Automatic annotation (TrEMBL):
Belongs to the cation transport ATPase (P-type) (TC 3.A.3) family. Type IV subfamily. The chain crosses the membrane at residues 280-303, 334-353, 905-925, 955-977, 992-1011, 1023-1044, 1064-1086. It is a multi-pass membrane protein. It is found in: Cell membrane; Early endosome; Endoplasmic reticulum membrane; Membrane. CDD domains: P-type_ATPase_APLT_Dnf-like. It catalyses: a 1,2-diacyl-sn-glycero-3-phospho-L-serine(out) + ATP + H2O = a 1,2-diacyl-sn-glycero-3-phospho-L-serine(in) + ADP + phosphate + H(+); ATP + H2O + phospholipidSide 1 = ADP + phosphate + phospholipidSide 2; a 1,2-diacyl-sn-glycero-3-phosphoethanolamine(out) + ATP + H2O = a 1,2-diacyl-sn-glycero-3-phosphoethanolamine(in) + ADP + phosphate + H(+). Its cofactor is Mg(2+). This is Phospholipid-transporting ATPase.
Amino acid sequence: FMYLILLGVDERRVDSRTIYVGHRACSATEAFIPAKFCDNRIVSSKYTVWNFLPKNLFEQFRRIANFYFLIIFLVQVIVDTPTSPVTSGLPLFFVITVTAIKQGYEDWLRHKADNEVNKYPVTVLENGCRIRKESEKIKVGDVVEVEEDETFPCDLILLQSSRDDGTCFVTTASLDGESNHKVRRNDLESLYAAIECEQPQPDLYNVSVCTAQLLTKLSDLLMGLCRSLGPENLLLKGATLKNTQKICGVAVYTGMETKMALNYQGKSQKRSAVEKSINAFLLVYLCILVSKALVCTTLKYVWQSEPGQDEPWYNEKTQREKDTNRYLKMFTDFLSFMVLFNFIIPVSMYVTVEMQKFLGSFFITWDKDFFDPEIKEGALVNTSDLNEELGQVEYVFTDKTGTLTQNNMEFIECCIDGFQYKYRDASSELDGFCVTDGPVSKLQQKAGREKEELFLRALCLCHTVQVKESTEQGVDGEVIHPPQEQRGFIASSPDEVALVKGAMRYGFTFLGLESKSMKILNRNNDIELYELLHVLNFDPVRRRMSVIVRSKSGDTLLFCKGADSSIFPRVRQEEVERIRMNVERNATGYRTLCVAYKILSAEEYAQADAGLREARLALQDREERLMTVYNQVETGMSLIGATAVEDRLQEEAAETMEALQGAGIKVWVLTGDKMETAKSTCYACRLFQRNTELLELTVRTLEDGQPSREQRLHDLLVEYHKKAVQDAPPVKAGVTRSWSSAGHDYGFIIDGATLSMVLNSSSESNSNSYKNLFLQICQNCTSVLCCRMAPLQKAQIVKLVKNSKGSPITLSIGDGANDVSMILEAHVGIGIKGKEGRQAVRNSDYAIPKLKHLKKLLLAHGHLYYVRIAHLVQYFFYKNLCFILPQFLYQFFCGYSQQPLYDAAYLTMYNICFTSMPILAYSLLEQHICMEVLLDNAPLYREIAKNAMLRWGPFVYWTFLGVFHGLLFFFGVRFLFSNPALQDNGQVFGNWSYGTIVFTVLVFTVTLKLALDTRHWTWINHFVIWGSLAFYVFFSFFWGGIIWPFLRQQRLYFVFANMLSSVSAWLVIILLILLSLLPEILLVVFRKPRGPHARQVQLNHTQTHTHTHTHTLILSAPLFSSCL
């Protein structure tokens, strides 16, 4: 006997869903057919057991290098090629397998995390019985019971709370980054209800739901009681129940339709600059490969065109060979040469790079300097693919609150009716409630007592703070409530707690909210009661919040607090001037809020109450309607005063910012705070100096001139461009303000409203022109401050710089949910494990406990990671060029017959076993400069800026080195073979001996070359370098010393042992290794440190170690400097 009423619509809406609480139909005359909604399983994994193999293989073969080697392998299988398919198939299989294992392991961890969530036991109420279920079995409409400190398993509408006032407290730190407690209200008293709500959407702060609560009494059959529900009634999955023993709620969104799941966006694949350089180098080597194959194919047919060369008497063609199409034969020959030379493309480099990144990321996690004893956590690496990008950062975009500052608010002072009040903390006034000579001290004069008490009442009433229930057990088990002043406060913002505590200092104490009544203890120790009628919540657009309360005398009052720019236009202007001076003075170091009030007449309140209720019931345009009502109510107010709270700087924030600027990194502060507060923080962090000329482009400066805003914007941009760009002296490369006092420093300030005008100008041509001028000005300033920024604008700024000329590497760092957009947009995103929850941490590439850790992360770890991987990439191309060049030269001496110079075992194992481990160890452990020196000398960071070690210059150097070594190996051994008798018994060496000698010289040279480049020796380096050489010798003896039954032909049978029996072979091997490495040795010995920074480092290091001679600073090519 129930009837469902849907408000505002005549028929069921497509864009909404109706949920029956407890799966009970609302009409006994109709059959209940439950709607189909998704289950409560969370799936963040990428693969399943069944699709892992095909899906992973498909993704891996989308990489050009893997696909290329697959084609080469298929060519070897199909076409008669000079080398076995194993030579390319085995390395490819190794690369694919290792990558698949790594990705499979990472996905297994995601499966494990999903199962922990999905199998979590929860309590569901069914027909009055409490049933334990797994979380994944919850369905939409189930009534779920959650106890204190438990996490909500899905999105719930609150039905019942153990608290008397029907509310509960939650922390949403894992969702929106706010660790403060929020109040959720219970608006349902019966389970016989249907809820109509919108379809799932990701907005955490907006939910349009309308419920029709249906009573069971016959008289109420046609009178469904409708309640409006909003975000304050919704308990989000991932949030935690706090300060409330137990609640019951109905599931409205489950599984992948919860707001948490919809907000989880897979991070877009960020690719490092090193990866782009690898692809560019790969194309060059691919061109070299094709050129070699074309040259050999052409010369083969030129040589065979001479009489007697095509078909010599000892190698007559078969009939099938004679019948083969000539052009098809040329094509297969070309493919055969491609296969023969294909090892110039280092397929194993990709897996080595993957392993280097994956294993190297552990060094950040293990770094003890990143451990924070407060939160008992260290650094976290979410993305190991970007380690080297940490050494290439050119722009840092940082949030202010919680990142540069501690987000730990402390009440400093207030201004009442134009008079300044400071708290005097005297030992005789510990209680803080003395009226005659209490903590309120006049500086010059004092406002009237009535104004003081009105202001303090406003601080006690205009908030969403709740008193934390802390109870202790007495001796007899009875509950003891501690004194009020010892109880804690919980609120959605630390500002609010600071203001309530500030009011306590002045004698007004907030006692809590009970059954819609707010209790205050005044100066006379009398309790005042106020009925809470409405809360007009804070939002970043209005930048203010209000409450409507009714006093015991029946007066209806509106109290409002907010930013000065939001409050001043809504109060009487004659009151503004008395407060403005105080606000502007405090804004240089503190966060300021203005407080206003208004007495509402019965008609005004009735109109506001009706408007608010109607707006909250709306399913469409709900926020806009509420905003309209808010703006109508919050007008014509009286300004009472202003408050100042301090947000202290993070530990070593100024030193960190100074070090980053010394490293040539430009720091931009992007914040939602007001300009004055943010500017003072920039001065405190030394981003702005006393001699810095500030170029301000804000709404205030746009309104100074007579012309229109658009024209004024254009004029200011042109003026600033002339000053900062055109008239500025040219800056020497690598010099920043720390070393050049002669130059003029500029700082740039812009606010959100002006930025919108710059980015979204009325005409397209103007917009592009403004963007270019804006970017050029900013890039010529030492620091940039963007204030009053919305989260989306933060991301727009990052994107603008990221896509500017030169594509500079950007880094964003923040601690709150409002920083997620810019963290995802930047090349590298860093989250701070601060007080604003873990949303930023979850979406970041790296997470650190404090801002001060950014210095070591970039200047030490980033620097070393980049140098290591750059050397790895150049070394891989070099050693493969050394490997294949002799093979190419050999074709000129074997009639272009595609005869391999090396045995198939050597071809296969060269990159996998003989030369892979030393470079992997080098790329993990190398410290060409000590970490301490890197931290003390920030300018060293600039020497590797703009991908310095992977430019075309170093690439050409390494390529020429590979060509030189390849020529030396081949022609040096050929010179040896000019003597026909190389053995004691007069026998001559064959072609496999020739190839083995070349290969031996090759393996020893490239390994010892790496040993020469190593500056930081550990036992692991010794083990892999000398172990690899020993393994090669052992393998060669073992491979050639046994007759292997599975080989049709054994080319190296006793070849290696026979070769080493020749003194001439020994002499040539040793001489060629020495000749190859001699230029490198001479360069290291005789080259002196170059550049001012090298001398500075050497000087500093010498002074540090004057008592010992065991530390020497050397700069060697191709590295910049070294610390032995």
